[in-house]
Specification:
Blueprint (H helix, E strand, L loop, with lengths): L1 H5 L6 E4 L5 H5 L5 E6 L11 H24 L2 E4 L2 H11 L6 E3 L14 H7 L7 E6 L3 H4 L1 H11 L6 E7 L11 E5 L6 H7 L2 E4 L9 H8 L4 E4 L12 E4 L2 H13 L1 H18 L6 H13 L1
Parallel strand pairs: 1-2, 2-3, 3-4, 5-6, 5-8, 6-7, 8-9, 9-10
Helix pairs in contact: 5-8, 7-10, 9-11
């Protein structure tokens, strides 16, 4: 239905965020098509058990259509070098048809604020060290691993508190030092990061630095993330990449022990977002559209 509606629009360029833009061409669409890739179907390989079986079947059929769509559009925009590599390697898109434009977040909306005020908004303890987890797909985002890390460190840090923000319907984590916030309104999400000391994300797959990490860093909240959720070249600039369970424990311990280092990492993360991942990145979309129109 969406592609049929697009046929009625007399636009020079359509910036497409759907999976199968080839349908637009199939129905006779004449506008130039730019497909934006926030990830590829490779994420479906990161599930386990029965879910993985269905995911693999879905990934096979999705991959064929995804590959075809990505090859027939006029241009592909990947949100990271990782996504570009996957498009070339697994979906046979020519590199010349792909450009990389990183995501960006508002540095006015997400910025450092008073921690005590933010904690009072969510009725969080004022005297605890709060580790934050944010994610809807609990399996892929590594919720189990995050919870295990916090539980292990609770033996050493009695004042450790775990805050979980999710849309998932079932979250199993019953303890006095765990609080689960569901369906937090978008306008309150900045305060979630302001209330927290560290973001923890042991994700099994991300297309790039996910918005969760970008928002946390912009808010001055440092992060410990898996190698699947970060770019190596910025490691140490607000976030620390952990490659295994032991490293997650170690890096969390360092940040929890050293408040000065934690604050320094928060400042580095803020500076990284301002310089590399602000909303200015979206100006590049306008430049790309202009170049494509002139070229055609």
């Amino acid at each position: 239905p969406t592609y049929l509606k697009l046929l009625k629009i007399n636009a020079k360029v359509i910036l497409d965020n759907f999976d199968f833009p080839f349908l637009y061409k199939l129905f006779g669409g004449r506008s130039l098509l730019i497909k934006v890739h926030h990830g590829t179907p490779k994420y479906l390989e990161k599930y386990y058990g029965l879910k993985k079986v269905f995911a693999k079947l879905y990934a096979f059929f999705l991959g064929v259509l995804y590959s075809y769509s990505s090859r027939i559009v006029d241009l592909n925009i990947a949100v990271s070098s990782k996504v570009k590599t996957e498009l070339v390697k697994y979906y046979h898109v020519t590199p010349e048809k792909i450009i990389v434009i990183h995501n960006g977040v508002s540095t006015e909306r997400f910025k450092p604020r008073d921690k005590i005020f933010a904690r009072k908004v969510f009725n969080l303890p004022l005297d605890k060290k709060i580790v934050l987890f944010v994610g809807g797909d609990l399996d892929r985002k590594g919720f189990k691993e995050a919870l295990q890390s916090v539980e292990f460190l609770r033996k050493e840090f009695k004042d450790l508190f775990f805050l979980v923000v999710t849309r998932a319907k079932r979250v199993i984590a019953h303890a006095n030092h765990v609080k689960i916030l569901k369906d937090v309104p978008e306008d309150l999400m900045p305060l979630v990061y302001n209330a927290s000391d560290i973001l923890l994300l042991p994700s099994k797959y991300e297309a790039s630095l996910p918005l969760t990490v970008l928002e946390a860093l912009a808010s001055g909240c440092p992060a410990v993330v898996s190698q699947n959720a970060a770019e190596e070249k910025y490691n140490g600039q607000g976030y620390i990449i952990a490659h295994n369970y032991g490293e997650f424990i170690n890096y969390l311990r360092i940040l929890l022990k050293n408040v000065n280092y934690r604050e320094e990492m928060g400042l580095r993360g803020r500076n990284l977002i301002v310089s590399e991942y602000s909303l200015k990145n979206f100006d590049k979309y306008v430049e790309v559209v202009d170049r494509l129109i002139k070229r055609k």
